[in-house]
Amino acid sequence: MTISTTPPRTRRYATSGTTMLMLSLLSVGLVAGVYFAFQVAVIPGLSRASDATFAEALDRINESIENPVFFAAFFGALVVTAIAGTQQWRRGNGAAALFALAALGLYLVGFGATIVGDIPLNEQLAAVAPAHAGPVIDRIRTPWLAWNVVRTLASVAALLCLGRALAVSGRHR
């Protein structure tokens, strides 16, 4: 019988790396789902309503989305994805780190599209009375949808990169 003097290897660090990748995948997925829902349901549905209803409903939606739960996913995705990539890099798992960092870059594209594209357009619509919103809606609808396509596709691509990072991280043990 031989007695090993080497302490058993703990899996705590490996588990935390996987946990951060899963949290990143979850938060990015939730945000991508919100963008997708706007693209395929919210805006097309509001477009079937009167201009006043469109303007008032979109304004209420934009007010409602500013809440701690959404902000936790929206801003948290940046943080947990950066941590996940860093953890994978420190573990020596370059492939998973690169996929996670690519996801971070893609998510930043979607994040930026929200900040520089959709939010300013939302504010233009909110600045007019719903009864007089028709010309503003006509002016902002196409660019708003274009910015939303950018952020949706970027977030979905980030989600795919995180899925790949999670898959290759499991092979690096």
TrEMBL record:
Q: Does the keyword Transmembrane helix apply?
A: yes
Question: Is-annotated flag, keyword Transcription?
Answer: no
Q: Where, by residue number, does the polypeptide cross the bilayer? A: 21-47, 67-84, 96-116, 144-167
Highest taxon above the source species: Bacteria
| InterPro entries in the cross-refs | Anthrone_oxy
Sorted alphabetically, which keywords does the UniProt record give?
Membrane, Transmembrane, Transmembrane helix
Q: What is the protein name stated in its UniProt record?
A: Membrane protein
